[in-house]
């Protein structure tokens, strides 16, 4: 059985917990009320001295002012009534002022909504680089820890709806950007379903195969005078994204791959199915990174690379020299999240060391501080997908000093229902633990050095 009065009292108590940010102002209002009460008491005292009350009026005044009770009991009763009225009135004022700004579908108390917003706003600044399903999965988990997230998304996709829009409009690929916006958006679930809706049909139809989100991004870019970067910014604003999603570059780039047999493959969709990839590169050469992406990396407290397709989602962003230079010079904690499973063709047969070696072949050593990998191999495996868990061979073989080897962290970050995907909550929690541990170690090191 629920007791409404007790539920209200518990709700008032939650308003006073750390992080909500109302206690200092309630205290200020309370001090103001005390000053007014003191002024009223002084006035009444002066009235009693100046005017003598006799007869029937004296009994009325005595009853109203509780003079038939001891002073201590009077003070307790009046103080209790004052605190109760003050708390209830303050709660109702806050509720009346804030409720119009709380989504109607929110199923949690107002105090929890405010606490969550303020807590997330104080979270670390995180820059995440990658693309594909892996990046959107990570974002769904991280947005429960901080709202200061910037997703730097690769734009090298050339297949499906993104490829057709790129070919017809000359804009960078928008598919991964759409997925990340949906992952971070605070819009209602129906809006997310709408953005992901794909029109039936094939390429012979004008809309066949296109998603609503891709078309909106293309339209927003046109509305902004062809400024793709500004178009993505406005989509972030319109959809109330928690943080921001930015393209790695505003230029339509093409990904190329050189295979170990000496042949070359062009296009992300073709590379994804290739085996024996030795290196990848972008054309045109010397592409400029987006200012928002570079700035997010420079200002970040934590930089996360991956998860995602190694050659077609992660490396395209790291091939932009401005972004790699910003990561290398950053004082942030730099983490690489390895995939939980290999991908047929692209990383078939790769172990943990192979993933890091591929990154270092393209960027050089010393780019990363920590490598996070999954150590739980009991998750359910989809029967039709030809992939295997990433084996934990470590460290990678090198020809340079081993001092550049990132620290390895193993944790259970796999989706227990699908061994080929990360679990958003587990992955985000593990990354935040790494950030807290590394940040604490760095603070202690600086303290020792300054001592």
List the helices and strands and how they pair.
Blueprint: H1 4-15, H2 23-50, H3 56-64, H4 71-98, H5 110-121, E1 126-130, H6 132-142, E2 149-153, H7 160-169, H8 175-184, H9 189-196, H10 212-223, H11 228-238, E3 244-247, E4 254-259, E5 264-266, H12 268-272, E6 277-283, H13 291-299, E7 302-305, H14 310-318, H15 321-329, E8 333-337, H16 352-363, E9 370-374, E10 407-411, E11 414-415, E12 418-422, H17 424-450
Parallel strand pairs: 1-2, 1-7, 2-3, 7-8, 8-9, 9-10
Antiparallel strand pairs: 4-5, 4-6, 11-12
Describe it.
It is a single chain. This protein is of the alpha/beta class. It is 49% helix and 12% strand. The protein has helices at 4-15, 23-50, 56-64, 71-98, 110-121, 132-142, 160-169, 175-184, 189-196, 212-223, 228-238, 268-272, 291-299, 310-318, 321-329, 352-363, 424-450, and strands at residues 126-130, 149-153, 244-247, 254-259, 264-266, 277-283, 302-305, 333-337, 370-374, 407-411, 414-415, 418-422. The strands form three sheets. It has a seven-stranded parallel beta sheet with strand order 3-2-1-7-8-9-10, sandwiched between helices. Strands 5-4-6 form a three-stranded antiparallel beta sheet. A two-stranded antiparallel ribbon has the order 11-12. The radius of gyration is 30 Å and the shape is elongated.
